[in-house]
Amino acid sequence: SPSYLFFCFVFLQSTLAWSSLCRFSGNRSLHVTASCCKNRAARIRVGKGDRPVTYEQAHHPHHIAHRKGWLSQHTSNLKGEDRAAERTIEDVFIRRFVFGTFHGCLANEIVIKRRGNVLSVCAVMLQKLPPQKFYFLIGYTESLLSHFYKCPVKLEIQTLQDKAVYKYL
Amino acid sequence: MASPSSKAFLSLGRIYIPLLGFNKSSGKVTYATALSINSSSGNKGLPDRGGRGSLGRRPRRDAGEPRTEKMPVDQDWTAVYPAAAPFRPSSVPLPVRMGYPVKGGIPPEKKGNLELIKIPNFLHLTPAAIKKHCEALKPFCTEWPSALDTDAKCDEHFPIKVESTDYVSAGPSLRNLSARIVHLRNYDYAMYLLTVLYHESWKTEAWEAEKTVADMEEYSWEDSPSQKNVLDLLLRMKVAGEGDGEEVRQQLLGRREVQEYKDSVTRLKNEGESESGMVQYKEAVKKVFNL
């Protein structure tokens, strides 16, 4: 998101400046500027070194296409294709939905791939729930999202014991 | 855990191999056997509660070893990845690493690696898989006619070409809106028109015999002023003694330089003036007059 810089100078001119009493030395002005905001998007700042961080979190957004791939893939951003906004809205909804449905179980971000009209949601989960609950939640998510988006939605899950730590910040 | 016999090889079939259609009923079978092993071990029960342990629930099973450990070297890979699927580290027996390494380290391993999941993979399109696809498609195909081995021959025998456009697009709907924009051409009607035109073009009408030189759409060198001029010039030039006869003219016409001159003039007149056309004409003229 672009950062906006405002410069506003407010001068208070005292009309008593040129009175006989020269105690007030002329202009009493108030300068106000916004601080130059540092970029804080999607960054975890370096800390004490005890906070485990995944590969996805450790790399800042400007590393996308250099060290990171894309979390969502569809053809709408190609030349001559449209409906990119609809795909983005769908992505945002799916991420929040899956995050809430499998609360506390997600090890990393969700990868969304669209192949033709199939929506494939790939997620890496922690083994916090018993498998039966996992199966139920997977079926529930798939059927609900399929009905919602009127296209086949497939959930592809991998499980891990613990999160894959990249480094400690 | 208390005893190794209680370890159940929990094949989370649905999780590792979702596309092969492992249904839940087979999953239940594995659970049942696992449960019986657990209950028969005896020295389990209340003291050994798993992670939760609120009501003496069955202890949490460990995840089994990944499928890669059990894969033989000569397995059928098309069974592991029969269709396009994301990368599954426990199904791919390769020690791949992906990612930017930490300082003084190496790229992160494949387990839990989101980068490997993000990228498209072609594990379902190995040469063996493609061979299988071809074998499956063979019954529906016929041999390519061996006489049509060059593009020129194909054009000659099948001059009509029908263009169709395919679109790649991914979204919830099956239809692509740009497919509705067509060059309005009814295929059947176009075929009918072409057939009619073909037959009509072979018929000659009576008035076509009255075509004059001015009506010609192409320049032809025979019986043209250019031919007359060239032949006159050549006769005057060299064959002063042989006389002017029809056979002499025919003989001159047959000469190679005259043919080249004819080609260059025809080209200039038909195609218009161009750099190479003028060069060709110049060469031909030089040859004719032995310059």
TrEMBL record, chain A:
<dbReference type="GO" id="GO:0006412">
    <property type="term" value="P:translation"/>
</dbReference>
<feature type="signal peptide">
    <location>
        <begin position="1"/>
        <end position="17"/>
    </location>
</feature>
<dbReference type="GO" id="GO:0005739">
    <property type="term" value="C:mitochondrion"/>
</dbReference>
<keyword id="KW-0732">Signal</keyword>
<dbReference type="InterPro" id="IPR026146">
    <property type="entry name" value="Ribosomal_uS3m"/>
</dbReference>
<keyword id="KW-0687">Ribonucleoprotein</keyword>
<dbReference type="Pfam" id="PF14955">
    <property type="entry name" value="MRP-S24"/>
</dbReference>
<comment type="similarity">
    <text>Belongs to the universal ribosomal protein uS3 family.</text>
</comment>
<dbReference type="GO" id="GO:0005840">
    <property type="term" value="C:ribosome"/>
</dbReference>
<protein>
    <submittedName>
        <fullName>Mitochondrial ribosomal protein S24</fullName>
    </submittedName>
</protein>
<dbReference type="GO" id="GO:1990904">
    <property type="term" value="C:ribonucleoprotein complex"/>
</dbReference>
<keyword id="KW-0689">Ribosomal protein</keyword>
<keyword id="KW-0496">Mitochondrion</keyword>
<keyword id="KW-0809">Transit peptide</keyword>
UniProtKB/TrEMBL annotation, chain B:
<dbReference type="GO" id="GO:0032543">
    <property type="term" value="P:mitochondrial translation"/>
</dbReference>
<dbReference type="GO" id="GO:0005763">
    <property type="term" value="C:mitochondrial small ribosomal subunit"/>
</dbReference>
<feature type="region of interest" description="Disordered">
    <location>
        <begin position="40"/>
        <end position="72"/>
    </location>
</feature>
<dbReference type="InterPro" id="IPR039848">
    <property type="entry name" value="Ribosomal_mS35_mt"/>
</dbReference>
<feature type="compositionally biased region" description="Basic and acidic residues">
    <location>
        <begin position="61"/>
        <end position="72"/>
    </location>
</feature>
<protein>
    <submittedName>
        <fullName>Mitochondrial ribosomal protein S35</fullName>
    </submittedName>
</protein>
<dbReference type="GO" id="GO:0003735">
    <property type="term" value="F:structural constituent of ribosome"/>
</dbReference>
